Structures are given as C-alpha cells and as structure tokens.
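User: Sequence in, structure out. Go.
Assistant: Echoing your sequence, followed by the structure tokens.
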Amino acid sequence: MGMWSLGLGAVGAAIAGIILANTDFFLTKPEHATVDHLEDADLKTTLGDEKTFKAKTLWETSGAVIMAEAAELSSLKPQLDQLGVPLYAVVKEDINTEIQDFRPHFTGDIFLDEKQAFYGPIQRKIGVLGFIRLGVWQNFIRAWKSGYQGNMNGEGFILGGVFVIGSGKQGILLEHREKEFGDKVNTESVLEAAKKIVVEK
C-alpha cells in the first residue's frame, strides 16, 4: 500500500509539474519597454567595420519594426518597404558564426545589443521547464521544418520580442513579448501598427 501511494504521489507531482510548466505561472511578467529605455541602447553593426551607434537612429525619421530573435517577420519585408518602414533584427550575442547562420533566414539588417536593452527592462527567462511546454516543441518543429536549426551555444533562455516604433515622438506602437521559445507575433498586427508610422520625407 505504501509503495502504491508513493508511486501515485510521484505520478501526480509529475502531472502537476507538466501542467504548471505549460502555463505562465512561473514566467516573469513583462515590464513594458519605453522609448527612453530603448533609444539609448548601444547597438553594433555586424557587417564589415564594426560601428557602435544609439538605437534611436534606427527609427528617428522612418519608424521601424525591430525584432529580438525571430525570423518570421521577413515575410512582411515587401509590405514594409512599400510603407517606407525598415525591418531590423537585434540579437543579444554573436558566438562563432551565429549571426552569419541567421542571415539566410532574415531579410533586414542585423545589429548586436550586447547590453540586451531590447530584452528588458526586466529580462525574462523561461528556464529548463520550457522544454516540457507543448508550444515550445511545436515551435521547434516548425523552425526545423523551415530549415532553421539554431545552435546550442550561448545564452538560450532569454525571451525576445517585437517592437513597432514610430518616428519622432510617436513612441512604441506595438510591443509583443515572447511567452515561450518561438512564440510568434501576429504579423497582421505588426503590419497594422506599421501603417500608423508617419515616415518623414
């Protein structure tokens, strides 16, 4: 009887753990970014001569769609080009050939954010419990089928997001924070937000 109850208790704990891991219960709630927080971020170019510049230059005159670690937005590049709104990727690290391996999957410019301003103001990590989330496995399979394999180097637990930032003083028009690895933003929402950007001629 004691072994049965111990076994049932272990099964119950495992089931409870899986259920809790598939909710947002243990996930740090995102703190919304502000333009003040993002515009002062130091970004580095990743092609040719390495140059450092302030992030606000990316959206000052034309606004921008900026993603932290997601390639699917490349499908919007033709529509964004018609609007005059650039598409950028900001990555948190460049280990070995990581950025070069990412380039075929993204059609915009890629910049390095070593201080990870675009991953804050409060960094959110999913941890190893993320690997028992159903959505994570679905996203891994989707990425693998599309040819993107990623790597096992560096800090892989920090969650990213997408920002649509208006020109001048328009501010942040859309902010999407990942809830798990590969959590995609609604591309129609991104496009609608981008249409609100006033592009300075």
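User: And one key feature?
Assistant: The longest helix spans residues 2-21.
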